[in-house]
Sequence to fold (207 residues):
Amino acid sequence: MIGLIIKDFLNLKKQAQIISIIVVIYMMISFLGENVSMLVGMIMLLSAMLPLTALAYDERSGWDKFALTMPVSRREVVASKYTFAIIVIGVASVISFISMMAFDSLDISTELIVSAFILSFCILYISLLLPVAFKLGAEKARYAMFIVAFTPVIVVSAYAKINPEGLGTNFTELNFAMIALISLTVAVVCFVISYMVSIKIYKAKEF
Fold:
């Protein structure tokens, strides 16, 4: 399975160069504007998109047909994609946290809570997309990707317009640390369920 993960990283070598350029540009914008939120959001969104990009490369090259002729089980193929996602999102989370510590004036406990919320969203994001990608293909899953990404923004914006005072009041009274911990726990549970669903889908798939 390690070989499958290395293969994904090698396939995305060119993508890594483009992503590095994008990150540098957003880093400069964040530094000049003294606002790291744009940089952090972009880093985490790109990291969540990479596993889907890796799947798209496999589909275009017909990799799955070749991979299944080797001593590799279908479970291992799925596990490699989820492990790849964990590695990429984990690295992105560390970079995002360091960026917030460098640019923001918030204390470390607040930065950790914010990081937990962002990490939770990314895990949920990829947990929803990977089963769709295994079922319908990576290209069709890109449509779901945009729906998943913008739905929370639309919901929060709509709620803010309907009840602008309630939004601020309700959230400031809550224990953010506890909410962050619950969010992260739910995200991890969803990730495990997503993995099990993807295995079932992939085992039933014909190539």
About this structure: The CA atoms of residues 34 and 103 lie 7 Å apart. The first helix runs from residue 2 to 11. Residues 2-203 form one domain. Confidence is low (pLDDT under 50) at residues 166-173.
